[in-house]
Amino acid sequence: MIEHAADAHEATTRLTYARVHAGADGATHFENVAVGMASREFVPGIPLVDLASPQSVTTLTFARLAAGYTSDWHPAPRRQFVLLLTGAMEVTVSDGETRTFGPGQVVLVEDTAGAGHQTRTRGADACLFVAVAC
What we know:
By secondary structure, this protein is mainly beta. The protein is 0% helix and 53% strand.
C-alpha cells in the first residue's frame, strides 16, 4: 500500500508492507512496516521520483503457485521480500492470523526459524510472484 502526504508541499510518501517474523517464543506473527520515501533524483535529467533508502539483495527468483496450492507449515527458506504479480496468496502465521495478498502487494518473510507459516493460493487462478532474497 502506498500513502501520499496530505500536504502537497510535504515530500514524504510511505509504502507499507507486511512482515512475517518469529517472536522470542518461536511463534510467527505479522507486523505492518512503513517505509518513508522522499522525492529524489533517480536518473540524471529526469523528473524526481519518490524513493526509499536502498536495500541490499542477493537473488531474484520468479515463482508460480498453481491454483489450489496449499503448503504444510514451514519456516521461510531465507529472508526475502515477496512481490505479488498476479493471483492471490493467503498466509497464515502460527499465532492464528491469516492475511491475503494480491497483485502489487509486498510481504517481507523472515521467519527462518520457529513455527513457520502456511501458504495457499486463493481463487481459481495461479499466483505469480517474485522472491527477492536479502
